[in-house]
């Protein structure tokens, strides 16, 4: 399925850009929205993390907590991670989820680029965020 990342454990997480229409198929059970402004309301459970375009999340501890929750819930629920375009912030979050799933930090960006989108994780500081994700201070 387009936009769906299969993690090594088999968990599936859909990444997408909110500028594009919701893909066909069942809606997510829960979504994590990574935007510089509050997203519009949706019919499913969602969580918003303030994360300006091309930058890093405003609250790294809350981001780490939200990503851990999304990873855990993806075992049995449909999880969506989205930003405006679906590449930079979404790719960064997906790479962090890959780290939680056992992909080494130094390989997580390449994993997401191969299995989700070649343009995923757009900036040097987003790559650095992934390389340090999971340490005591994200």
Overview of the structural elements:
By secondary structure, the chain is an alpha/beta fold. It has one domain: Protein tyrosine phosphatase superfamily (Protein-Tyrosine Phosphatase, Chain A, Alpha-Beta Complex). It is 34% helix and 19% strand. The chain has helices spanning 60-73, 88-100, 105-115, 124-132, and strands at 4-6, 12-17, 30-35, 45-50, 79-83. The chain has a 5-stranded mixed β-sheet, with helices on one face. Strand 1 (4-6) and strand 2 (12-17) form a beta hairpin. Helix 2 crosses helix 3 (105-115). The radius of gyration is 13 Å and the shape is globular. The model has no long low-confidence stretch (mean pLDDT 93).
* Overall helicity: 25-40%
Average predicted local confidence, pLDDT = 93
Overall number of domains: 1
Q: Strand-and-helix sequence, N→C?
A: EEEEHEHHH
Give the number of helices: 4
**N- and C-termini, Cα separation:** 31 Å
CATH fold field value: Protein-Tyrosine Phosphatase, Chain A
Main beta sheet strand tally, sense and closure? 5 strands, mixed
Sum up the overall morphology in one term. globular
Radius of gyration (Å): 13 Å
Spatial strand arrangement across the major sheet: 1-2-5-3-4
Topology at a glance:
Layout: E1 4-6, E2 12-17, E3 30-35, E4 45-50, H1 60-73, E5 79-83, H2 88-100, H3 105-115, H4 124-132
Parallel strand pairs: 2-5, 3-4, 3-5
Antiparallel strand pairs: 1-2
Helix pairs in contact: 1-2, 2-3, 2-4, 3-4
Protein name: Protein-tyrosine-phosphatase
Pfam families: PTP-SAK
Keywords: Hydrolase
